[in-house]
Amino acid sequence: MTVRTRIAPSPTGDPHVGTAYVALFNLAFAKQQGGEFILRIEDTDQVRSTPESEQAILDSLRWVGIEWSEGPDVGGPYGPYRQSERSSIYKEYADQLIRDGHAFHCFATSEELDQMREEQKEQGLPQKYDGRGLKLSQDEVQKRIAAGEPYVIRMKVPEEGVCVFNDMLRGQIEIDWAQIDMQVLMKADGLPTYHLANVVDDHLMKITHVIRGEEWINSAPKHLLLYKYFGWDAPELCHMPLLRNPDKTKLSKRKNPTSINFYERMGYMPEALLNYLGRMGWSMPDEREKFSLAEMIEHFDILRVSLGGPIFDLEKLSWLNSQWLRELDQTSFILRFVQWGLNAQYLSPAIEHIMPRINTFSDVVPLAGHLLSGMIDVKVDDFTHKKLETEDVRRILQFAAWKLDVQRQWDRDSLFEVASGLAKAMGYKVGEFFFPLFIAIAGTSATFSVVDAMAILGPDLSRARLRHAIGVVGGPSKKEAKAWQKEFDALV
Q: If you write DSSP's letter for every residue of 351-420 in order, what string do you get?
């Protein structure tokens, strides 16, 4: 048997360090066993999935040093490797489940399901599908389908008993079937949910080991039941511990930058970031802290993974990065620095804004040094403005952060439209509104357009600088946050 593992990211946002973390352990396990590691794009969420997000995932994983032998960009014998291109395959298997009596049509509307959950909540019952679709006769089902009523396909789940399965790290796990919902397998738009597509694709792509985050433990019974319904052998399951913030909460962008692109733009070496992710819950046999991907693969043993939630600590990452930096010779250091910050691709968009504003080359750094910085060292006094109170600055920064957190189109015109529209909605003149953004992003208002700077810096570093500035001036209290969020929601 050839060991085959996979990573299956959803292209719905910024490339997450958690994706790289799970991908690394899948890669290390497969390669240590002489197997193959593949990448599959799970874009069943057609509303949120974008080609730009997919490309960012591919680029960022490659930047950090992770390569795959099969995928949407390199092909392979089990393609296509995008779920959106495999719709006919999923329909075939969903129809098979219907024919074999393992799934059923559900015509319940969103309003009916909301009412069902509300009634269950009032009665103190678990909030899950109540099986109403199972009570329909076959004749009624066919009539409603013929009449064009929208429906989903749900899987049947036992009402009693326990699902028992083995996890490579955790041993035997038991979950009561009473806790498992009758999962939607095919949505009303004809596209599969993750659960059906995941099982079908893993089987057809001959995945032997599924190594994923522990948040998927409660979904394992659904997946294993589908394997049983289809008569397929299930892969080995391994649920990795989640990355944690220093306060032990799940890693989140509000407490720690989570985008891989942030670490690239901050100037971390990809080898150091990959090394650090490799230390998340795992260690080399000799306990050394600095090691390469090749060394990790050579010594990898999945059973050395600790189930304690690994802490993602920026200070520790920075220290490890310094060890990698100091091992470079001077020529390599210069080349790597130029490649990071002084390359034509990154600087070219800034040149048109810099050249009209300088008299000598020495003027460049004061004008555009923020393009080669990480977090900007700002103080409360830097945000002083003759027409803005501290309360105004706090609200502007927080509202802008909320708005830009969900902004997917990241070019200067889109950013200006969004920011100026928010300024108008909040009742500020554009110049007044933009002042705190200049300080947060550039550290000064004596530079070129802040939206041009944000477009060059990219969304990850720009958002991180905004959150940093909010921390400096004082973010909203819990009471303020609720009130501000209501006001923000009304504006947008």
A: HHHHGGG-SSGGGHHHHHGGGG-SS----GGGG-BTTB-HHHHHHHHHHHHHHHHT----SHHHHHHHHH
In whole angstroms, give the CA distance from residue 225 to residue 131: 17
Angstrom distances, CA of residue 444 to CA of 347, 370, 394, 450: 20, 9, 17, 10
Residues ≥6 apart with Cβ < 8 Å to 234: 223, 224, 227, 228
Is the distance from CB of 48 to CB of 191 less than 8 angstroms?
no
Instruction: With H, G, I as helix, E, B as strand and everything else as coil, classify residue 39.
Output: strand
Rounded-to-10 torsion of CA 264, 267, 273, 274: 60
- CB–CB of 263/462 below 8 Å? no
User: Which of the residues in the chain have pLDDT under 50?
Assistant: none
Separation of alpha carbons 319 and 329, rounded Å: 18
Neighbours of 87 (CB within 10 A): 16
> How buried is 166 (Cβ within 10 angstroms: 0-12 exposed, 13-18 middle, 19+ buried)?
exposed
**pTM of the predicted protein model:** 0.92
pLDDT of residue 48: 86
In the set 128, 253, 290, 403, the catalytic residue is 253
Element (H or E) spanning 164, and its range? strand 162-167
Q: How far apart are the first and last CA of the chain?
A: 55
Query: So what's the pLDDT on residue 477?
Result: 94
Specify the pLDDT at position 361.
96
- Candidates 245, 353, 241; CA nearest to 305 is 241
Catalytic site includes residue 135:
no
Q: Characterize 337-371 residue by residue with b for buried, 16 or more Cβ atoms within 10 angstroms of its Cβ, and e for exposed.
A: eeebeeeeebbeebeebbeeeeeeeeebeebbebb
Cα separations in angstroms, 277 against 58, 109, 338? 18, 43, 25
- Are the C-beta atoms of residues 453 and 370 closer than 8 Å to each other? yes
pLDDT confidence of residue 125: 87
